[in-house]
Design goal:
The complex is a heterodimer of chains A (about 220) and B (about 475). In chain A, α2 runs parallel beside α6 and α4 packs antiparallel against α5. Chain A contains seven helices and no strands. With about 220 residues, chain A is mostly helical. Chain B is mainly α and about 475 residues long. Chain B has a domain of about 210 residues. Chain B is built from 19 helices and two strands. The radius of gyration of chain B is 21 Å and the shape is globular. The relative contact order of chain B is 0.10. The chains are: A mainly alpha (about 220), B mainly alpha (about 475). At the A-B interface, α4, α5, α6 and α7 of A face α5, α6, α8 and α9 of B.
Chain lengths: ~220, ~475
């Protein structure tokens, strides 16, 4: 297969990543959100592996494998377990209604593409055109964190943001040095572990995972 | 060699204390590990003063006068805080606020937190710096929610999410930095090493670096507590246990600012303009003014001093933003003074709130009658942090303001106004706490106040007289930061 052919597939996967980000914004159920998160991870892993193959950057294979194991298998499985154990899979109403959120999302995507434009012009990598998408994914995940009041969607938003960052690293620079990527993966893993302890603490104290109960501390 | 001791001791301590559990002597073991860390830091400092900057471990660690000064400060405050927490946490446990399991978590996380901060300070790799900063956040999230009260859980959640988002932005900044570096240094592990970057900083692509710096500043700045991303800070400080407030305020904020400064040196080199410094001055000034006015409205004593931390970190950021030998010197001095004084204040406040059973300032009265040492500790600490001579904070604030008058006269009225407002509100609130009328009984136990007076003594000494070798050391570090 020729390089341009690969490139088209990477671009397709990048588009998929962005599409999944929008789907996450509109998803009301937590279980659906977790499934989408797993798919996003899968798209990320596939595109990373493809970039590794077509450019011969072998350390990207590790990165792809790490994404596959952590973000497609381990974390979704773990979240499903937490959801089941805490019995929280009901419809969640976002704080801003979904059509408005989508519109804000579109504005964010335009903003991200404009921001990424000067950098991708400098980039020498074959995948540079996807940098805008990576940035858009980060911003959309950020938007999701803002508009959701439940604990688990906020964390999934946080992890989706991490996905976008990884994608940015792959598309602009063929990934970070391996030791940094391992460190980041370790932090993410510990973070999810800490958070799950936290879910149980919140649940125990508030009898719910709805963060609306947490509005006592306000800036006075 | 010292560097491995420095990082290995707290890490071993964390693992050991997690396995050992909460037995009779775990607070003493915690203090012992902190003491050993301090000794390692002292040895390392001695080495650097003798031999000058060095890279260790195949370029993975880099130590110069700037970070060795922070290493020494971190290890010192970590040790005194461990001393303070020994009786303090025991009493909290006796009051039924903590059980053995949570104390075990506390001791173990405390050591891991120190290890993560020391790694962030000594690493040469900008990527590892990010990893260590994130690790330091994660180690403290569960410490903030240690009491498991609704308010503490909320504070910890806010801390995690806000700092998580902040640090994600910093990661993007790091990616951009690597992107620029890779063009000059080639891809692979060495392109993120700070010493290598520093060597080629004039060749780095300016547009990418300026964008990278914005992300790094906002990202790490969230952790410094710079406005408008400061809102996690008062909550985390007020709801966590007091020793945690002391190390968060006295140490973590410094380490985050250290990360910003390391990036600034690179960006300044690449751009050759004041863009980075101007951004820092803007954020710094906003934090100083906003925090000063928010202090006025606080009713909780720990929240009030948390806002005071935002104010002082803003002032330090402003000083570093101005750049130049004098402002950098003043910034470094103020960093030291703030760490020592603020942790001393938190120690005194911890005992005062423990005695009164409330953190509300209305409920704490007449400390000087019931517990003269706590009362004096709090009063002297407050006077010191407000910049009254002869304490060292006066010297550093004076230097910052005179430099501002000279270089950026427009900023001076804002700074003076903010310092004045902060002075009036803090002093007005602490005065009745110390001297007011009270009927409450004496504290039934011996408070651990040696660390308070040790810190304040150092601050007083540095205000009157900075030993020549220390001044030379500061000057060297200030030189490194450039202008």
């Amino acid at each position: 297969m020729s390089l341009t052919y690969h490139l088209q597939i990477v671009n397709l996967l990048a588009a998929l990543l962005l599409l999944i980000s929008f789907a996450m914004l509109s998803q009301r159920r937590i279980a659906g959100l977790i499934t989408l998160f797993a798919w996003q991870g899968a798209a990320l892993a596939a595109s990373t592996a493809l970039v590794a193959w077509s450019t011969g950057q072998h350390h990207l294979y590790y990165s792809a494998a790490l994404t596959l194991v952590l973000k497609v298998i381990a974390m979704p499985w773990y979240f499903f377990r937490v959801v089941k154990k805490l019995n929280v899979d009901r419809d969640v109403e976002p704080m801003i209604n979904i059509p408005t959120t989508m519109l804000i999302g579109i504005v964010l995507v335009i903003f991200a593409f404009n921001l990424a434009l000067p950098i991708s012009e400098l980039s020498g990598t074959v995948t540079r055109s996807t940098l805008g998408i990576a940035l858009a994914t980060v911003l959309l995940a950020f938007l999701m964190m803002i508009t959701r009041s439940k604990a688990i969607p906020q964390v999934i938003g946080f992890l989706a943001m991490e996905n976008g960052l990884f994608f940015a690293a792959t598309s602009a620079t063929y990934g970070m040095p391996l030791v940094v990527e391992l460190g980041v993966a370790l932090d993410v893993m510990v973070g999810v572990f800490v958070l799950s302890i936290f879910f149980f603490q919140i649940r125990e104290t508030f009898d719910s995972l709805d963060l609306k109960h947490m509005e006592k501390l306000r800036e006075k | 060699m010292e560097i491995y001791w420095l990082l290995g001791i707290p890490l071993t301590g964390g693992i050991f204390l997690a396995l050992w559990g909460c037995r009779k002597h775990s607070p003493e073991i915690n203090a012992l590990f902190s003491l050993l860390t301090l000794l390692a830091a002292a040895l390392l400092t001695h080495r650097i003063i003798e031999d000058g900057p060095m890279t260790v471990g195949g370029g993975w660690f880099f130590i110069d006068s700037f970070n060795v000064f922070l290493v020494a400060l971190t290890a010192f405050v970590a040790f005194t805080t461990a001393l303070f927490s020994r009786p303090y946490m025991r009493i909290e446990a006796e009051h039924g606020k903590l059980n053995d399991k949570r104390l075990r978590l506390y001791h173990s996380s405390y050591q891991i937190f120190i290890a993560a901060m020391l790694l962030a300070l000594t690493t040469n790799n900008m990527g590892i710096l990010w990893v260590a900063m994130e690790a330091a956040t994660l180690a403290t999230v569960l410490l903030v929610s240690l009491y498991r009260t609704p308010a503490s859980l909320e504070a910890a959640w806010k801390y995690f999410i806000l700092c998580g988002v902040g640090i994600a932005l910093a990661l993007f900044g790091t990616i951009l930095l690597y992107f620029a570096a890779e063009k000059v240094l080639g891809s692979g592990g060495t392109a993120l090493l700070w010493t290598h970057l520093d060597g080629v900083k004039t060749e780095l692509e300016p547009t990418v670096l300026s964008l990278a710096f914005v992300f790094l500043l906002v990202g790490y700045g969230t952790k410094v507590g710079l406005a408008p991303l400061h809102s996690w800070l008062p909550d985390a400080h007020a709801e966590g246990p007091t020793p945690v407030s002391a190390v968060l305020s006295g140490l973590l904020l410094n380490v985050a600012l250290y990360a910003v400064m390391r990036s600034k040196v690179l960006v300044d080199g690449a751009l050759g303009t004041d863009m980075a410094g101007n951004l820092m001055m803007g954020f710094g000034l906003l934090s100083v003014v906003l925090a000063a006015f928010l202090i006025k409205r606080q009713t909780d004593v720990k929240r009030m001093f948390a806002y005071s931390s935002i104010e002082h970190m803003g002032l330090i950021t402003f000083a570093f933003g101005m750049g130049g030998a004098v402002a950098n010197f003043a910034g470094l001095l103020h960093m030291t003074m703030h760490s020592l004084t603020k942790s001393a204040i938190f120690f005194a406040v911890g005992h005062a709130t423990q005695k009164a059973g409330t953190q509300l300032m209305g409920g704490i009265r007449g400390l000087i009658k019931t517990n003269p040492t706590i009362g004096w500790g709090l009063m002297l600490g407050t006077v010191a942090i407000l910049g009254v001579p002869p304490f060292g904070v006066f010297a550093s604030e004076f230097l910052i303001i005179t430099t501002a008058m000279h270089d950026h006269p427009w900023a001076t009225p804002f700074l003076l106004l903010a310092l004045g407002v902060a002075f009036a509100s803090i002093f007005g609130k602490v005065q009745p706490m110390v001297f007011g009328e009270t009927e409450s009984a004496k504290l039934p136990y011996q408070p651990a106040l040696a660390p308070v007076f040790l810190h304040l003594g150092l601050v007083l000494m540095l205000g009157l007289f900075i030993p020549p070798y220390l001044a030379a050391w500061y000057r060297q570090a200030a030189q490194l930061l450039g202008g």
